Amino acid sequence: MCSGRIDPSFVLKSFTEGADGVLICGCHPGDCHYHEGNYKCLRRFHLLEKYLVQMGIDKRRIRLEWISASEGKEFAELANEFSETIKELGKSTIKQEMEEFA
Ligand code: FES
Q: Which atom of ligand 1 lies nearest, measured to the CA of 1?
């Protein structure tokens, strides 16, 4: 329910199980119900992004955005834009590479 609950292992698992991209959304800074969850998410995101790039994953495949539950139109636009980016990048090869390595 809070972006502060996002564990980097959730994102890694998504990619290793075949996700082509991961979009993380949280409340706008200052609006987190749990006060600092989105700040915690932001700190983790920057570390995760660096780690994924070192693993060979294009950083455009992961994105963090602040958006509130009342911003349905903006969320739809964001989701469509992210989907287009992922389509342009094509399928991720991480799952296949993990299976070949195992
Ligand atoms: S409740 Fe924490 S980011 Fe939304």
A: 1
What are the tokens at 6? 């996002």
Confidence (pLDDT) at 1: 86
Ordered DSSP codes for 24-93: EEEPPTT--TTSSHHHHHHHHHHHHHHHHHHTT--GGGEEEEE--TT-HHHHHHHHHHHHHHHHHH----
Whether residue 24 contacts residue 45, with contact meaning beta carbons closer than 8 Å, is answered with yes
- Report pLDDT digits (tens) over 5-54: 999 999 999 999 999 999 999 999 999 999 999 999 999 999 999 999 99
Per the structure block, which two tokens stand in for 75? 């969320």
d(CA 45, CA 39) in angstroms, rounded, equals 10
Q: Compute the distance from residue 24 Cα to the ligand 1 centre, in Å.
A: 11
- Residue 98 pLDDT more than 90? no
